[in-house]
């Protein structure tokens, strides 16, 4: 029998993610559309995104924050193309996006002195083996595996290398010690439920020093350039942008940040996300057919919550049939209007990925879970 209650907002995509509670197009009514992004009021609105982001996250003194093109992908690649090559680099990967950064460094930048620290989906590599006298590139939270780093204690304060962190599904949802990080990137369309195509980059004083003292051996496209004449282009971090920005998306980003402030800032955002994970964890504990993909409890993501189907009959199926059954489950709830876009990522093991960021209401997660049980029973072919 179908459950009686449906989620009020059935949006569980891991990007673009659910808008904040109560959001409507009316929130964009004051957008400076039709205005130049270089006009004084437009630059003020852009600066508001930067200032509120830095304030909510509690960035350390001396760190700068700016808006860059091409979402988190653009921000990460801007950092790698601009900063790497000065010393050896340790590359970390335990899911598809981290693996993509490894590929970029090996096959595009073609760097020597690369050490790879890799693990299968559901696991972390041994972080204690990372050499932080090298530059280090890693994802804080594996968006496609649901595995996060439990802390940054493995990064020494007296490191000689730069730590470059793709934190797109961690910022605004996890307690991050920014003093351990020299470059942090994310995009608007993740935890804060903004729109795509816009990235954010944070630079520490050490990263700025590297930018101003080191010139890569390869040419840099304009959208990657953060220096001019050997000096940081400060305008990027004070209301200007490298290329034309969408003022409609800026307005939406401002709206999300104002909402975050209104509910209590970062502690409230983290609390909301962790409540979503707890709702799922309580259900998983009682379930006889699903488990977290993350193998260690301390590494389970509270944003991109990835689940694997463990039922005997399902595990007995060939891999392609497992994938088809998981997609069938997702499709059933899509047709019911119960949940959208919560299938596993295309390169990840077949299963489910439910977004648990702060813009998702715990009540909607709780309403989704009985429907997952219903859909699983619908796809079941019988006990093997």
Descriptive report:
This protein has helices at residues 40-57, 71-83, 96-108, 205-213, 247-263, 265-286, 312-315, 319-335, 362-379; strands at residues 64-69, 89-93, 114-118, 135-139, 141-142, 147-148, 163-166, 183-187, 198-203, 227-228, 231-232, 290-292, 304-309, 352-355. The protein has 384 residues and is α/β, with parallel strands linked by helices. The longest helix has 22 residues, at 265-286. α1 (40-57) runs parallel beside α5, α5 (247-263) packs across α6 (265-286) and α6 packs parallel to α9 (362-379). The two termini are 23 Å apart. The chain is 34% helix and 15% strand. It folds into two domains: 33-261, Aspartate Aminotransferase, domain 2; 265-379, Alpha-Beta Complex (Aspartate Aminotransferase, domain 1). The strands form four sheets. The chain has a seven-stranded mixed sheet with strand order 1-9-8-7-4-2-3, with helices on both faces.
Oligomeric form: single chain
Per the CATH scheme, the topology name of the largest domain is Aspartate Aminotransferase, domain 2
Q: Shape from CA axes?
A: globular
Numbering strands along the chain, what is their spatial order in the largest sheet? 1-9-8-7-4-2-3
Unreliable stretches covering 5 or more consecutive residues: none
Gap between N and C termini: 23 Å
CATH superfamily of the largest domain: Type I PLP-dependent aspartate aminotransferase-like (Major domain)
CATH C-level of the largest domain: Alpha Beta
- Proportion in helices: 25-40%
- Total discrete domains: 2
**Total strands:** 14
Q: Tell me the major beta sheet.
A: 7 strands, mixed
What CATH architecture of the largest domain do you see?
A: 3-Layer(aba) Sandwich
Distinct helical segment count:
9
The percent range for strand residues is: 5-15%
**C-alpha Rg, in Å?**
21 Å
Structural class: alpha/beta
Mean pLDDT: 97
